[in-house]
Amino acid sequence: MPALRGLYAITDDTLLAGRLLPAVAAALAGGCRLVQYRSKQPDAARRREEAGALVALCHHHGAQLLVNDDPVLAQAIGADGVHLGQDDMPLAEARALLGPAAIIGITCHDSLALAQVAVQGGASYVAFGRFFPSGTKPVAPPAPLDILTAAHRALAIPVVAIGGITLDNAPIALAAGADMLAVAGDLFAAPDITARARTYTDLFTGTRS
To answer: How far, in Å, CA of 97 to CA of 75, rounded?
Structure first.
């Protein structure tokens, strides 16, 4: 399994309405190798169709697709894993459903304790945030940047920064300890998605301790 490091693209129903596949294809062309299908639309058949198309697209580019909140959909379409919130299917249940090779990430907000529980439960990565004002999660409580530093030092799995990430503040999150940057708006609202993805990817070309 490729290392969990780099740009982590998050889809958005509103932002990508009518252009989901070409927009994700553009991000993949820019070097993105991890995509999360995040959809809140009520049409289950449409979600399955979109997710199935995305997993084929990602695999064609040597990338991986995770499904937000829905391990059953992830299993049905052959996705590489799932991202779970604290109120979603329990980690152990999702792991039993998807198997030992699946990528399972957990939202931990601003809590190192939640992250440590996730590590003990076999999570593949933990995500903290939001760190900056976010259009995707405008009412999410803010998290301090030093949670990234503490998690990077204490945990043996990758750490994701999510929430309001832009090219301007991405270096701050990386310096604090993030292994991956989860980005929605600043990537998919860019006039040239491929160029924006490439610029994010270039941030990870150096070495990290």
So the answer is: 7
- For the chain, what are the domain ranges? 6-202
Q: How many CB atoms lie within 10 A of CB 166?
A: 15
Q: For domain 6-202, which architecture applies?
A: Alpha-Beta Barrel (3.20)
Residue 162's H or E segment, with its range, is strand 159-162
Vertex 23: Cα angle to 22 and 29 (nearest 5)? 85
13 with 191: CB under 8 angstroms? Answer: no
pTM above 0.85, yes or no: yes
pLDDT, one tens digit per residue, over 59-106 is: 999 999 999 999 999 999 999 999 999 999 999 999 999 999 999 999
CB 134 within 8 A of CB 164: yes
